[in-house]
Design goal:
mainly alpha; AhpD-like; 9 helices
């Protein structure tokens, strides 16, 4: 499952057992990516709280966040996250197989509304080279109706995905 020992749900106690219950109640199972963090329930709790913020985001779609995770994970070569987020886009967010292929080949073809497409492209630019962004990029996003909170949330999500990809790849977490 992972290079480090993890705690399965049946053996979880205390805070970890509570977190596993919350995750299972929300998404139906405990993904291996969450079990990876069972070693440190405090960090897992923070990770879960952060993800729980994004699920019902007040202004940005789950499709945008899944697209960010997918395309960042492609650049970071995290097969686990590519597979998970491809499945989410196909099964939860109504993306067709042809749209998924097109988006993977060219992120500008992501099946998102214009505002969210600009956010996605900005996040990908920043993840590829964080020094390449400028005030002009932010002004373009604002001209497409993005608030500073939306810009921050989208970029934060992409940056956190990089960290998750590194952990999953380095610890050799098996796909569910």
């Amino acid at each position: 499952m992972s290079l480090l020992k993890t705690i399965e749900p049946a053996q979880a106690e205390g805070k970890l057992a509570e977190l596993y219950q919350q995750v299972k109640a929300t998404i139906g199972f405990i993904p291996n990516a969450f079990k990876m963090s069972s070693i440190n329930p405090t960090l897992l709790e923070g990770r879960w709280q952060t993800l729980s913020y994004y699920f019902p985001h007040p202004t940005l779609s789950g499709k945008l966040f899944a697209s960010i995770r997918l395309l960042v994970s492609i650049t970071k070569q995290c097969k686990y996250c590519v597979e998970v987020n491809s499945g989410l886009l196909l099964n939860m967010f109504g993306v067709t197989p042809d749209q998924l292929i097109a988006m993977r080949e060219n992120p500008q073809k992501a099946p998102l509304e214009e505002k969210e497409k600009h956010l996605l492209l900005f996040v990908l630019k920043a993840v590829a080279d964080s020094n390449s962004t400028s005030e002009a990029d932010i002004q373009v996003l604002r001209s497409h109706g993005c608030t500073d909170l939306e810009i921050y949330d989208a970029l934060s999500h992409g940056a956190q995905q990089v960290a998750g990809d590194i952990m999953i790849n380095a610890l050799k977490v098996e796909r569910d």
